């Protein structure tokens, strides 16, 4: 009797466990069916959900075709994407991009600030902005991604992220493959003519003061340091390591400029064009000998991946030419 009682208890326990497992299985099956249903709906509508650079969940087209951007034209052109609209005034200082599209192929949405009316007329299926404050206005027109190039440590990371957002990872890999090959050639060109311990400084000349250019921004900084891997002199490296740049620049006095001079001096003179410069600048050896590399503002105020690629190649040519002339 004792054995029969034990057997009944065991059978009841087994039966209860089977019922529980059956219920769990049904729940999992229902959940799987619901997830599949959601995936099918997304596939049918051609959309997916991404998380943009400020953490917003955004439902975007799998492969948007009518894109508007208020800043990131270079990143789009790198992926062989022709936006229907952009702030074209930016091209006044990103002239390398002009070879990547046909004239009038991109509608100008404003000078400096985008016109919402113009953006709406273009009927975009995606808007890419730098300005999180503009999202509320933009997303009434189309799905809006906030992109921030400062979120990424390298051009590789930046382009891969944009490729993911736009459903064009193949184009991102294609651009980066070409980018790496061309940068390798530019590096080799430089390394053939300079010594291993050569140092480089980029100065942006002003009327009262001047600036040392940071290693990851405009005026050739991203091209020279981050991309080509050139070395700053000790005092400049100290700035990079211990100070926070203001707009890709570290402002210094002309009185101490000599402390920051590298073996190669590179300058851009936009803010003091045609103005006189103090003796502390004009008496620098590189200046007196005519051995300063000058940068054109219309090509060097940009730091997008396409512009940086061309800037790096241009710098390599200029450094090679100057070094050969010095010898």
From TrEMBL:
Q: Name one GO cellular component term.
A: outer membrane-bounded periplasmic space
Note one Pfam family from the annotation.
Peripla_BP_2
Question: Which residues does UniProt assign to the signal peptide?
Answer: 1-26
Whether Repressor counts among this entry's keywords is no
Q: A GO term (biological process) for this protein?
A: iron coordination entity transport
- Indicate the segments forming the Fe/B12 periplasmic-binding domain, all copies: 66-323
Q: Where in the cell is it found?
A: Cell envelope
Per UniProt, which keywords does this protein have?
Signal, Transport
Q: Which InterPro entries match?
A: ABC_transptr_periplasmic_BD, Bact_iron-sidero_bind
- Source domain of life is Bacteria
PROSITE patterns, per this entry?
FE_B12_PBP, PROKAR_LIPOPROTEIN
Q: Name the SUPFAM superfamilies for this protein.
A: Helical backbone' metal receptor (SSF53807)
Similarity section: Belongs to the bacterial solute-binding protein 8 family.
- Protein name listed in UniProt: Fe/B12 periplasmic-binding domain-containing protein
Tell me what organism the protein belongs to: Viridibacillus arenosi FSL R5-213
Recall the taxonomic lineage recorded for the source organism: Bacteria, Bacillati, Bacillota, Bacilli, Bacillales
């Amino acid at each position: 009797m004792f054995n029969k009682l034990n057997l009944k208890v065991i059978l009841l326990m087994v039966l209860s466990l089977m019922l529980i497992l059956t219920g769990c299985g049904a729940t999992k099956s229902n959940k799987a069916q619901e997830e599949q249903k959601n995936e099918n709906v997304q596939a049918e509508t051609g959309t997916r959900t991404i998380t943009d650079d400020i953490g917003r969940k955004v439902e975007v087209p799998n492969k948007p075709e009518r894109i508007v951007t208020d800043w990131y034209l270079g990143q789009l052109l790198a992926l062989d994407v022709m936006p229907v609209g952009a702030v074209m005034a930016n091209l006044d200082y990103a002239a390398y991009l002009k070879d990547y599209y046909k004239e009038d192929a991109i509608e100008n949405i404003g000078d400096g600030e985008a016109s919402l009316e113009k953006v709406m007329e273009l009927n975009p299926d995606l808007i890419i902005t730098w300005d999180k404050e503009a999202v509320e206005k933009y997303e009434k027109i189309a799905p809006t991604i906030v992109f921030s190039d400062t979120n990424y440590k390298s051009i590789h990371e930046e382009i891969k992220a944009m490729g993911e957002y736009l459903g064009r990872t193949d184009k991102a890999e294609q651009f980066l493959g070409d980018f790496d090959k061309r940068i390798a050639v530019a590096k080799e060109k430089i390394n053939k003519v300079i010594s291993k311990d050569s140092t480089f400084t980029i100065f942006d000349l002003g009327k009262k003061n001047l600036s040392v250019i940071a290693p990851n921004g405009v005026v050739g900084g991203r091209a020279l340091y981050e991309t080509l891997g050139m070395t700053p002199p000790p005092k400049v490296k100290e700035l990079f390591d211990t100070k926070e740049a203001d707009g890709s620049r570290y402002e210094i006095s002309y009185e101490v400029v000599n402390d920051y001079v590298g073996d190669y001096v590179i300058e851009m003179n936009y803010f003091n064009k045609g103005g006189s410069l103090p003796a502390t600048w004009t008496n620098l050896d590189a200046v007196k000998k005519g051995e300063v590399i000058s940068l054109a503002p219309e090509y060097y105020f940009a730091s997008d991946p396409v512009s940086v690629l061309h800037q790096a190649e241009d710098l390599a040519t200029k450094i090679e030419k100057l070094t050969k002339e010095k010898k």
